[in-house]
Amino acid sequence: MSTSTIHDIGYRHYEGRRLGRAYVMRSLYVHNLRAAYGLGRPARAKVMPFLLVAIMLLPAAGSVAVYAISKEADTLIRYSSYASTLSVIIAIFVATQAPVLASRELRFHVVPLYFSRPVGHLDFVLAKQAAMATALFALTAVPITVLYLGGLVTRIPKSGEHLLHYLAALVGCVLFAVVLGSIGMVVAAFTPRRGFGVASVIAVFMLSTTIVAIVQGLAEMRTNFSLVGWAGLFSPFNLVDIVQVRLLGAKSSSIGIAPGTLGGLVALALCAALVAGSTAVLYGRFRKAGLS
């Protein structure tokens, strides 16, 4: 029988400065934000996010160019309607990047390794949600900023009024980012395989939009315009648009808008409930994965 030997490798306790929980959360946030755009990953991971960014910027650049030539203010795309107009591109971005943030650790069963450090389950979830929301905010806010700056450079009239519309549109971008990002993260977290995750997120957005459009069409045929407006609460893009129209003074970009300030408050409350509910579901999902 062979004998065992104990080697003294000179182990010493760490006596340096401990950076703590805040540093871990910040590191998780930065890591996931970079991952959303493929930074620090192979070149193929950067193709889709940056291609979508370019597509998002093209209409804004074209609109500014047309305005510079024609000097017609109507040629500039409305700030508040930009995200709704390009909703398909935003949905594709969420569908392709949410699985990168929400399901990679689940797929490779490395979630317990994260919780071996001084970071809680809720910290882990909030860092990921914040990273996804920031990535989406950049995707939607940069083209709107190009529109605004292009209007200033070409000396658009009533620049003060345009500034107010621009700031209101940025608030709308924040809502789009947190609502759509939260929905995409939840769906992706329950589909560890990336291909299924992409298809599932797109299906959720398409089905909700299609079903709401059908209900609104039937309600309009029966001249039930109140139902047309309230049905918009069940489509994510329409939901945020209702908040923009009723509470931020934007022009409608959807078929039906819930009536009055009450409609805006209900839509805002539903946005908050969606985000809070998504956080709770993600917390339970990653906590279960961390214990397995």
UniProtKB/TrEMBL annotation:
Q: Which domain of life is it from?
A: Bacteria
Presence of the UniProt keyword Translocase in the record: no
Extract the coiled-coil ranges from the record.
none
The alphabetical list of record keywords is: Membrane, Transmembrane, Transmembrane helix
Instruction: Report TM segments.
Output: 47-69, 81-102, 130-151, 163-190, 196-215, 227-249, 261-283
Protein name, please? ABC transporter permease
